[in-house]
Amino acid sequence: MTSATEAFFDGLARRRHEPLLEKVSGCLRVDLDHGKSVDHWYVNINKGDVVVGHDGGEPDTVFYAPARVFEKLASGEMNAMSALLRGEAATTGDLELAVLLQRLLPGPPTSTGPNNLARSAAANPNNVRPGAPRISAGFSTSGTLTVDPSAARAGERR
C-alpha cells in the first residue's frame, strides 16, 4: 500500500506543471526524519514546471518534519503552517517556497470545498510579493521561536 507521502509526491511529479506555481522558480527540499534515517525529496520548480525526485540541486528552502508528521500533512489531516507554529516541523531559507508547499498539500478530508483550499482566489500566487524577505525560523528545544533577521538580507531570489 502506498503511503500518503508517496502518493503526494508521485501525484505532484505526474502533473509536471502546476498552475499555482507559474510565477515561481526555486528548489524545495523536504527532509523526512524516520529516526535513524532521513529521506530527501526535491521539488524543483521552474515557472510552474515541476520535477520531483530524491536528488537535486542546492535547495532554496528546506522543510523538515518527522515522517509521521508529513504523512498527516500529505493526507490533509494536519496543516503545514500549523505544524510549523507548533514546532512539529521547521523550515529554513526562502519562506515563500514553504508557503507554496502548503498550497500544494491537500485540504482536510472532511472539507466540503476544493480539495486544496489554496486554489481559492485568496491564495492566488499573484498575492505573493516577488522578492519577499528570506528568513530562517523555527523553535528551539526551550520552546521559544527564533528568527534570524540577517537571513532577510540574503541573496536575491532566482
Automatic annotation (TrEMBL):
Q: Where is the composition biased (Polar residues)?
A: 112-127, 138-147
- A Pfam family found in this protein is SCP2
Can you give the residue ranges of the SCP2 domain? 16-105
UniProt-annotated stretches for the region Disordered: 110-158
Q: Which Gene3D superfamilies match?
A: SCP2 sterol-binding domain
Question: In its UniProt entry, what is this protein called?
Answer: SCP2 domain-containing protein
Organism, scientific name: Rugosimonospora acidiphila
